[in-house]
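Key idea: predict the complex, not the pieces.
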Amino acid sequence: MTRAATARVVDFTELYSRQQGFRASLFDAGLLIPTGVDGVYGHGAEFTELTSAIDALVAAAVREVHGGAATVLSFPPVMPREVLDRTDYIASFPQLAGAVSTYTGGDAEHRLLLAGRAAGHDWGGHFRASDVALVPSACHSVYPTLTGELPRDGAWIDVSGHCYRREPSIDPARMQAFRMREIVRVGSDRAAVAHRDTWAARAADLLAELDLRVQRAPATDPFFGRGGRMLAASQSADNLKTELLVPLYGDDMPGVAVASSNYHRDHFGVHFDITTVDGAPAHSACLGFGIERIALALLAAHGLDRRSWPNAVNAQL
Amino acid sequence: MTRAATARVVDFTELYSRQQGFRASLFDAGLLIPTGVDGVYGHGAEFTELTSAIDALVAAAVREVHGGAATVLSFPPVMPREVLDRTDYIASFPQLAGAVSTYTGGDAEHRLLLAGRAAGHDWGGHFRASDVALVPSACHSVYPTLTGELPRDGAWIDVSGHCYRREPSIDPARMQAFRMREIVRVGSDRAAVAHRDTWAARAADLLAELDLRVQRAPATDPFFGRGGRMLAASQSADNLKTELLVPLYGDDMPGVAVASSNYHRDHFGVHFDITTVDGAPAHSACLGFGIERIALALLAAHGLDRRSWPNAVNAQL
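Result:
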């Protein structure tokens, strides 16, 4: 979920000030708890309840539509690092990735580490890359489990988990660690596109029923570097990504993406050797909900105290 | 939560074989999903529901005992890396810690990374230590929020979150990424010790009501290296850690710790400048529940199909 392309001129100083103000009010209300690192926050009881309710609402919507046909999975915040390779995340979004490094030394090196630490040096260099990394998108954990031939109708997966993206920000809506719930479709190109289109519409309805003002907009991912510009241009030209934006900081500011749909063509099918019954690489699409972002959009729209929210909204959560 | 000291001779070959067999049956039943890394598993729908129910049961027990006096918090899987310093985790348990490394280079270095990767080299070395690390224990995120003077009665915190420990294992009960819910008490030494004792008893009751055969045993943490042996001996001599063990692999094998109580004396009070009203460093104690481990203990005790569990157990979950 990325910044939407926007034609109008944005007063960024004013935007940052509103973001900072919103974050301060969330801290004051005990909804979010500061940790000292931008984008890493504890959740107070009410925020935890709210995100659980949103997650349950999405889960219920998936059951309503797909029933038992959708496989429900959740994954831990870490995954094999090798998946960053196979998804090409390390090629396309290295700046957002988080790898897990660990200490593999013995007693002697540990004494050095502690001596350096006592002298005020960073001990991070004593840690080495491990075989696990942080999950950047909930659906990435799914594709490795689908390697092989799909059933005739393909697969639907309702997947949730914590994600990590390295983008420290004072904007409370841009967290480094956040929860995502995605409805993933893997199968023929036609099935993937249809899933993308119907779920983008359904997600917009679901958000509108929470009294959020939702706007659909074509979007691109923040591909890295010079080569990334071409990838983004191609993604945009082929209309592969759509975001559902909600105004968090006023109508004169860009909306915040609280959900997004992505059609990956056969990218994951090829990289994870997933084939349809006729032997072709599977296509995939997903609709991802940013759980904390929806919570923040609700708090921004209806106020920090849930007791004063419209009854129709609370009734759903 | 660590291996309990055990006097009897354990047939480790047999133990590993039972662990592997249990894990295989969990995979076959779709309760856990393999990822290719030992200790990192996806959760199927039924396992997800079971862990949620266990988490809710603990939450309800806390409300029943402490009502509004306990502050309910949850934290993301990452925290400031500096907390590993302040808790002394980097001194005592470097081998279990996970730090997050990220890519901070530009286009040119990224081309090198990709060229090396294409040639089959590990790109992990292109990542640098960031300012965040994985949370090793749910309660560690809490202490930084308490810096300063506590209220007269001290504080109770009900905290939950994902934890990470670097201990790859074929034992499904030893996950690298897992959920923990802890009831933390911070205040006078007397308050901390009383909390530890009453909650260890309450937790044993709660587990026994789930028809689990629970045994309390003194335990030590797996402190690192040669110096660690002294720390463990002191922890043991002062009876600071107690584990609640449940047999997962047969009565002839060591039980698995599904919960543990820890009395930290003024360790966190000193390191995070938390003081009681009379100006002394606060003492702390916690009772931590290993959510996945309780789920696995239930599956081991009552069978993989929840529909065949005792009604009295299902009624509580």
